[in-house]
Amino acid sequence: MSLIQNFQNIFKIEELRKRIFYVIGILLIYRLGTYITMPGVDASQLTATTGAATDLLGLFDLFVGGAFARAGVFALGIMPYITAAIIIQLMGAVVPYFQKLQREGEEGRRKINQLTRYGTVLITLVQSIGFSINLMNTSPEAIVVSNTAFIITGMIVLTAGTVFVMWLGERITERGIGNGISLLIMIGIIAALPTSLLNEIQTKDNIIIVLFELGVLVLVVSSVVLLTQGQRRIPVQYAKRVVGRKVYGGTTQYLPLRVNAAGVMPIIFAQSIMFIPSTVGTFFPGNETVQMLTAWSSDFTGVAYSIIFAIIVVFFTFFYTAIVINPKQMADTMKQQGGFIPGVRPGKQTVEFIDNILSRITLPGSIFIAIVAILPAVAANFGVTPGFAMFYGGTSLLIIVSVSLDTLQQIESHLMMRHYDGFMKTGRIRGRRR
């Protein structure tokens, strides 16, 4: 009853109710756009332009909610924006200009967002050409205009579609609940869940087996939630200082270091590496060595594939964590604010202390992420259909869990500000404090 009451509390708050309905409306518009076919394409003549969700095009189609296979106006979805954002973030670790922008606060973030939008348009223009050529090769009978006209039309329509989707995501972030870009990706992934589950039920003759698979899925999701929310809290003591007649500081706060600071990025990077052989294989169809590598990289259920994939995930977890978390910057900020870690001298020793703790928690976190990454292969080897197996781990599950938790935390904040109980009174969502 308390859970039902908490849902009722959501709709008692007018602002929160409007935000949720606004998000639902935007998501409906996005899903509608995935079913609108591009100009110059006969939808009835379309053949399968993507493979299973385990190859490059299949994974891309999963992220855009099936729009890629349907040649929809949102076929590229929000992925060019994600690519541009990743490039900008990586450049922030090596290019001084972007490092300067990251330190300029709100003005710097505004410039970075503007550069990300420009990068999104450029990447979309390039990807739209590749998409048009791929569609002409796989479904030539579906193209009802000349190739040149179709490529030009595709560049215009797909770029406009991606920019519109990017605008929808920004509207959700500004006027709705949660991160708009992440919600659009999550809704595209979840859209494939009912079909995959129905296919799994039809494939299995015994309902007990399906219920067992769902029970295992719940356990996996619970474990991923623990991984996503797990953190090591380092106590930070702030010295007392007198300003006028007031005394500031003298309190103990905590520096949270997440076990999975890299999020879903290691799996995305690792999958990109694993897709290279199959991508190269399309350019060299007559080379036996390349085709052998292509066949190997296409078998995601193979033991060798899973081992190499897991090792690459562990590597990229450390790599990306080193990019997004800077112990020296943390130590400098702490020192400027008059804070120190009890028993550790400010400066170099604080940097080494934070770096050591970060390395210790990243190692088990990276191993757990690697296990999550290969769980779809394990599930497929135990007889789960490939489409449904993708929800047992990998990028799909991590995105769904992280976005859901972030959205719930924002709803929780609205409830708590208005003195309502949150969703979890006893086992609270991480981020809500006593």
Automatic annotation (TrEMBL):
It is found in: Cell membrane; Membrane. Its main location: membrane. Keywords: Cell membrane, Membrane, Protein transport, Translocation, Transmembrane, Transmembrane helix, Transport. The keyword Glycoprotein does not apply. Belongs to the SecY/SEC61-alpha family. The central subunit of the protein translocation channel SecYEG. Consists of two halves formed by TMs 1-5 and 6-10. These two domains form a lateral gate at the front which open onto the bilayer between TMs 2 and 7, and are clamped together by SecE at the back. The channel is closed by both a pore ring composed of hydrophobic SecY resides and a short helix (helix 2A) on the extracellular side of the membrane which forms a plug. The plug probably moves laterally to allow the channel to open. The ring and the pore may move independently. This is Protein translocase subunit SecY. It comes from Natronogracilivirga saccharolytica.
